Amino acid sequence: MGIFDKKKFAELLALAKGNRSINQYALQCGVSSAHISRLLRGLVDTPPNPETIRKFASKAQNGVTYEELMEAAGHINSSSQAIKQDQPNEWQPQLTEKDKKDIAKTLEEWMKDLTSAEGLAFFNGEPVDEETKEYLKDSFEMILKHARLMNKKKYTPKKYRR
């Protein structure tokens, strides 16, 4: 396995993120914003796995490629030959339109509960501002999507995986 170049990986990831916030990029990629932040700051000593890198590359801006990220992570060498692959042909679940509608419905219910008088609408007697509500909504949405994908991956019988 090659060497994980934290600095180069952080530079490529910042380029891939573009002008989006870390939270926006994380939501689009389906990766934790905290993990992206730690990678950007060079605080992670082990490289992300190829599947996480594929998620980064799928939503990358500024022409950043999967191969560039894999090389910086040390998974492939500079001649683009794979050193380590994490089952690239492995089935990956996708959200259907029904899943997206269910998530939107659940999210709407949670936000309604959040803003009700009995909910978390107040913090130390102060009402929660709109920006905080948006952050919570984005976080809830990412959690719901991630949970749905993890459940699909775990509980979908192999005969239905295509």
From TrEMBL:
This protein's UniProt keywords: DNA-binding
GO molecular function: DNA binding
Highest taxon listed in the record's lineage: Bacteria
Name of the protein in its database record: DNA-binding protein
